[in-house]
Design goal:
9% strand; single chain; 51% helix; elongated; alpha/beta; 672 residues; five-stranded parallel beta sheet; 32 helices
Length: 672
């Protein structure tokens, strides 16, 4: 049942204020102490001043006036007298009784009721807002005691609690949401709301979508609160998606989705809450950013609103939710600004990839076309079709550079090697693993937890690497087929997730080792000729290697799946020469880390790099590049041991050198 206090909805009041005053029953208690039969403005002021650590208590403390002294003075003086306009006590009481509203079972004066109503005009009533309306309406007797006895400068008190803090503007001139008005946590929620609205095909964002975004944001306020309150977060998300209604009429992802009028009003209330919550010592002319807590407070602003009604319907204690938001939740820190690297031109990007992808020249030549097409089309905002920007099947033995290729593409296309989401497809080999891949239907375990769908939701502009794709269940491959064909996939939770700006990389080891070996035996003149005959019937490449690889792949993948792949790229096994280049690169990376982390320079002889490649080739040739990197890392203990021995001898070593002695790697001081 909805409740109010003197005509003001209870949800408008700060929850801590309601708890401290016992829903303002404390004001009625003061009136009874003074023998009054009506609750006056001064009674409410004394009740506020008795709140430890409150604003009113601070005003009285600085003036050296205990609140009980004011109460005793009013009792000894025979009452409060008229209101600020000189009304007699009897007239004021009469007006109070004629007005609707009780506090603690006692009627209130008209001035007190007006003060509560005026405080609620801003949309949120905390102690500061209420004090700003109570002080100008104090009765004559209370004013005489405070000014005459306590030497209080009431004008100064009123100015302190009534400092206007401008609410930040939440909308741009075109009506869209201005993200700069919000803190980092709130910006995550708004980004999630926009993503969900686009995925659901909604033409406008409304309050239901904002509530759903609050519930869906990973690590957000509602997720933390539900875990703290021991409630089911997954059930919450399932229920909030139902609130958003059926799929909209707009095609998913047709463009930015703006706020409707109800959401605009809610965001403006959130800005008001942010202003009233601001630290009283902060710059009064600077509005603080809107936080997730402010968004939640705005949603719960009215008792009959959608959010408040929803939480009551699921049996959630709103007071406990507010207390968690006010007491325990902390807005995420603003991320450190990063200096964006100058983007490489397509030609520079190809050269950069070639310098790092050792021994796979034919692979780089095949990637060059895709790198240029992706970078130029992304720069121009042009989309040739609705499919992903590229869909490449990388075929080769383990350790030949397939995963590194995905990371290099992420660097040159999206700006960071971290923009890769890796799927170990062996984890999706069971029939029920489709629920982990794209999520489960409502009511089933895995609802809203699909790795692919959530990955596309959180960041669709990155490389999606499906490693050892041949290990996936047929149902998972069917979902992947739609992603490759349409550039989108349906989340059972409701939204459609788009992959139009993604790069899809699939890797497989199928037949790669045998085909490469047979290609050498059959004197195939190039990897290009081998690949050109893998899928095409009637190709001039008619070697045993191409036929075997084609049969192997068609035995695992349906023709329609292979036809959705833009290109199949074969990686050749590494020989000693390529492994030496990989060893050189590994030593360069190790030297960079030693320099950056502990200030030690690393050098090496040419024989050292060749020795590492030889050891890797002879020891575990099947590990290829991974074996080389293990050999490079094997020199780290010797380097650290040398540094420790130098410290023990009182000698600081600033450089080390790796060389070969007696067919063994030896680490020595570079200063010698």
């Amino acid at each position: 049942m909805d409740t109010d206090i003197l005509g003001v909805p209870e949800q408008v009041f700060d929850s801590a204020l309601l708890a401290a005053t016992r829903r303002f029953a404390g004001a009625a208690a003061v009136a009874r102490e003074l023998g009054a039969d009506t609750v006056e403005v001064a009674h409410a002021l004394i009740a506020l001043a008795r709140i430890d650590g409150g604003r009113a208590a601070g005003l009285f403390d600085r003036q050296g006036i205990p609140p009980d002294v004011l109460a005793a003075g009013l009792l000894g003086g025979g009452g409060l007298g008229g209101g600020p306009a000189g009304r007699a006590g009897a007239e004021s009481a009469s007006l109070g009784r004629s007005a609707a509203g009780l506090l603690g079972g006692l009627p209130v004066t008209a001035d007190l009721r007006i003060a509560f109503t005026a405080a609620a005009d801003a949309g949120y009533v905390d102690e500061r807002a209420l004090l700003a309306e109570l002080l100008p309406r104090l009765e004559v007797g209370a004013v005489d005691l405070l000014v005459g006895y306590g030497r209080v400068d009431l004008a100064a008190w009123q100015a302190e609690v009534a400092v206007p803090r401008p609410a930040v503007e939440v909308l741009r001139p075109d009506g869209s949401i201005d993200p700069t008005a919000f803190g980092p946590g709130a910006r995550r929620v708004l980004a999630m709301m926009a993503t969900e609205a686009a995925g659901l095909g909604h033409e406008r964002c409304g309050i239901a979508l904002l509530l759903h975004a609050l519930a869906t944001t990973p690590g957000g306020l509602l997720e933390q609160a539900f875990l703290f309150l021991r409630r089911d977060v997954r059930a919450l998300r399932e229920q909030t998606i139902a609130l958003t209604g059926t799929r909209g009429r707009a095609a998913p992802g047709t463009g930015p989705v703006g706020p409707d009028e109800s959401l605009r009003s809610t965001l403006r209330r959130a800005a008001t809450f942010a202003a009233t919550r601001a630290d009283p010592g902060a710059d009064p002319d600077a509005a603080g950013p809107i936080t997730e807590r402010d968004l939640l407070a705005a949603l719960l602003d009215t008792p009959s609103g959608l959010a408040a009604g929803f939480f009551r319907d699921i049996g959630l204690d709103l007071d406990r939710l507010r207390r968690f938001a006010d007491t325990y939740y902390r807005e995420p820190a603003e991320p450190e600004p990063t200096r964006a690297a100058e983007p490489l031109s397509p030609e520079e990007a190809v050269r950069w990839v070639r310098s790092r992808l050792i021994g796979q020249e034919s692979v780089v030549e095949r990637l060059a076309f895709h790198i240029e097409l992706i970078k130029r089309s992304l720069t121009r905002g042009f989309r040739p079709d609705d499919r992903p920007r590229a869909a490449l099947l990388l075929c080769g033995p383990s350790g030949s550079g397939k995963t590194m290729t995905a990371r290099l593409l992420a660097q040159v296309v999206y700006g960071s090697e971290e923009d890769v989401l890796v799927f170990e497809m062996g984890q999706f080999s069971a029939r029920e693993s489709i629920n982990n891949f794209i999520g489960a239907p409502p009511g089933y375990v895995g609802f809203g937890e699909g790795k692919l769908t959530n990955g596309l939701r959180d960041n669709p502009r990155r490389v999606f690497l499906f490693d050892e794709v041949e290990k996936a269940d047929a149902r998972v491959l069917d979902a992947l087929l739609r992603l490759l064909d349409e550039g989108r996939i349906s989340d059972p939770a409701g939204p459609v997730r788009e992959a139009h700006d993604a790069v899809v990389i699939l890797t497989t080891n199928l037949g790669a080792t045998h085909s490469a070996a047979e290609a050498v035996e059959d004197d195939v003149d190039s990897v290009e000729n081998l690949i050109g005959s893998i899928l095409a019937e009637g190709s001039t490449g008619n070697t045993a290697a191409s036929a075997r690889l084609r049969r192997t792949m068609e035995g695992f993948f349906r023709p329609e799946f292979l036809n959705r792949v833009d290109e199949v790229i074969l990686y050749s096994p590494f020989g000693p020469t390529e492994l030496r280049g990989i060893a050189e690169n590994g030593l360069v990376r190790l030297a960079s880390r030693l320099r950056e982390q502990i200030g030690v320079e690393l050098g090496w002889t040419d024989e050292a790099a060749a020795h590492i490649a030889t050891v890797a080739w002879r020891g575990r040739p099947e590990e290829a590049a991974r074996g080389v990197n293990r050999c490079v890392n094997a020199v780290v203990p010797s380097i650290l041991r040398l540094l420790d021995e130098g410290d023990a001898a009182g000698r600081s070593i600033t450089s080390v050198r790796v060389r070969v002695a007696a067919d063994t790697l030896v680490v020595g001081s570079g200063d010698d």
